[in-house]
Amino acid sequence: MSKLYVTDREGHEHVLEGQVGWSVMEIIRENNLDIEAACGGCCACATCHVYVDPAGLAKVGEPGPDETMMLDEALDVRDTSRLSCQIKWTDDLDGLRVTLAPKF
After folding, report:
1. Which pTM does this prediction carry?
2. CB burial readout 47-76, b (16+ within 10 A) else e
3. Which run of H or of E encompasses 102?
4. How high is the pLDDT of residue 4?
């Protein structure tokens, strides 16, 4: 299985099993990490905001227009900000590292 590395808001790293076809948000949520994901992955909020490690940015691609609009609502947006609900897991993402952004 492929691995997703998630750093929580306290700075602890968690190694999660990637599930092909799931979003990064779903993987994080199903492993009981503290991610709100209020809209359930519909790109209608910014409560699944994460920072993607710069080494993985090319793999996840650019955010689409809807995601960009929602990121405008998020706190502490950075060049590496993404909504985890919009990153679909593939085995090509093995080793991806993300950090949970501050809560709303």
Report:
1. 0.95
2. bbbbbbbeebeeebeebeeebeebbeebee
3. none
4. 98
Is the CB of residue 24 less than 8 Å from the CB of residue 17? Answer: no
* Distance from C-alpha of 49 to C-alpha of 66, rounded to nearest angstrom: 14
Separation of alpha carbons 98 and 56, rounded Å: 9
The structure tokens 């920072």 sit at: 51
What's the CATH number for 3-100? 3.10.20.30
Residue 81: CB atoms within 10 Å: 19
Q: Give the residue ranges of the chain where pLDDT is below 50.
A: none
> Is the Cβ–Cβ distance between 69 and 100 less than 8 Å?
no
Distance separating alpha carbons of residues 1 and 7, to the nearest angstrom:
19
CA 76 to chain centre: 15
12 burial via Cβ count (<10 Å: 0-12, 13-18, 19+): exposed
